[in-house]
Amino acid sequence: MRHHLFLTACCVAVLAGPVLAQTTEHQTTVVEKKPGGTTAGAVAGAATGAVVAGPVGAVVGGVVGATVGHTVAPPREVRTYITSQDVPPITYGHAVVVGETVDGDVVWRDAPDYPRYQWAYLDGRRVVVDAKTHRVLEVY
Fold this sequence. Notes:
Layout: H1 2-20, H2 37-71, H3 76-84, E1 109-111, E2 114-122, E3 125-130, E4 136-139
Antiparallel strand pairs: 1-2, 2-3, 3-4
């Protein structure tokens, strides 16, 4: 009886080996520098969409990434100007989230030569928004 039980266990192990030793494929996307602009947003969005939802996800991710990439990343000159200004902070007291709109009585300052951007020094952080929508684009 023990001999049959041992043979049965060996057969199960031999037959189950290929099932347990399955290989899986992994796809990794590496972004070496912070994406910015329409092209970089489209590429990053397409790569992420492809990983999550395959070919259809790549198309949707590319479109969404292009849209987000186009609305983000103010030029370096804007950051340099904003971070060099010595202004008193405004007490805001609410969460500031990139992509969300800042509501309330905030006095926005212009970025010279870049009318698309405005900024404010809220609760110790310099916040850059789209001048028309006040959607947060960057926080320094």
